[in-house]
Amino acid sequence: MASATSEPDALVQDAVVPDAAAGAQHLAPTVVRSVKILVVGAYGVGKTTLIGAVSEIPILSTEETITTASVGVDPRLGAKSTTTVAMDFGRVTVGGETALYLFGTPGQRRFWDLWVGLADGAVGVLLLVDTRRLEDSFEVLDQLEEHTQLPVAVVVNEFPGAPAHAAEDVLRALDLPLDTPLVSGDLRGRAQAVEALRALVAHAVRLRSAESSAA
Amino acid sequence: MPVQKPVQKPTDGYHDHPVRSYVLTGGRAHPTRNTLRPETLLCAVDDGRELPLGAGRHERALLETCRGTLSLAELAAYLRLPASLVAVLVSDLIDAGYLAVRSGGAHDLPGIDLLEEVLDGLRNF
Q: Which Pfam families does the record associate with it (chain A) (predicted)?
């Protein structure tokens, strides 16, 4: 049982926990189910920007800590180091009954596993790419192929000064099927972000229809 | 002997300090159910029952925060706790009847009907 001792450790949590309930933005009572889309891409490619452009709540973030035994480190410095991995996410209610969550996941698949069930049951993956650094997307893609059969749509965040590429060239470079939807534009705009989500969900519908007619 | 409400077992070992996660969860690293995902919708059960006295501060804050519907990920973000830890607390609170899963169980993939509904919803933006 919690003892009546003083709480010298309770500094950070005391400051935070009481605010949690006050700041929470609950879903409408009509919402009865949830779905999710993973927004993946290399660091700095605009995942959080895209999520923020459509989210009905301010961007939220959850963190997990990985503890790794360090190799080749002076034991006097301690045998373990910890790394914090953050995931930004947002939410948008669609059709009144469904909450669509957008999880901005770190590019590397090994980090996804920090959030149990993150990839399970997702509608699909929005892969954000910067055409100036396409190679940054390769690792993400390899791991997507290896671990999931989720529908993928590509979003090219048009950074100023980035060379314009034909959609087909980008898909070829990424070694993705040429019927993969590709949306490009300035993702700070809500219209562009919604367009990207629509393209992915429409693609998921097509793939599922094809599956069920093949079965 | 007075009849006591069943006290939530796993909370017995809780200490009300922001110490390491495994202490907060009574030494357990995994929730009692594996159907929880970051987007699972949760809502406090409003039947006037109070948490047992031994319940920790985080469980109280969690229930307080979850008076309306929120996903597990949102709970974790608001409480500033790792989602893995929140999943353990949530599992216990569901088992003890204080918290309910609002969204349908964790099925493999969203069905085509649901996908089309989402698509329609997005078209209306």
A: ATP_bind_1 (PF03029)
The band of A79, judged by pLDDT with boundaries at 50, 70 and 90, is: low
Cross-chain residue pair B67–A13, CB shorter than 8 Å: no
Q: Which domain holds residue B81?
A: 9-123
Chain B interface mutation, best of A14, A61, A88, A94, highest count of B Cβ atoms under 10 Å? A94
The residue in chain A having the minimum alpha-carbon distance to the alpha carbon of residue B37 is A117
Q: Looking at the domain assignment, is residue B51 inside a domain?
A: yes
Residues 6+ apart with CB under 8 A from B15: A2, A3, B23, B24, B56
Q: How is domain A29-70+80-214 classified at the architecture level of CATH?
A: 3-Layer(aba) Sandwich (3.40)
pTM for this prediction: 0.82
Distance from CA of A97 to the nearest CA of B (A): 9
Q: How many CA atoms lie within 13 A of A67 on its CB side?
A: 5
| Any domain includes B2 | no
What are the residue boundaries of the structural domains of chain A, listed by start?
29-70+80-214
| A112-167 pLDDT, tens digit each | 778 888 888 899 999 999 888 887 777 777 767 666 678 999 999 887 777 778 88
- CA distance linking residue A196 with residue A114, whole number of Å: 26
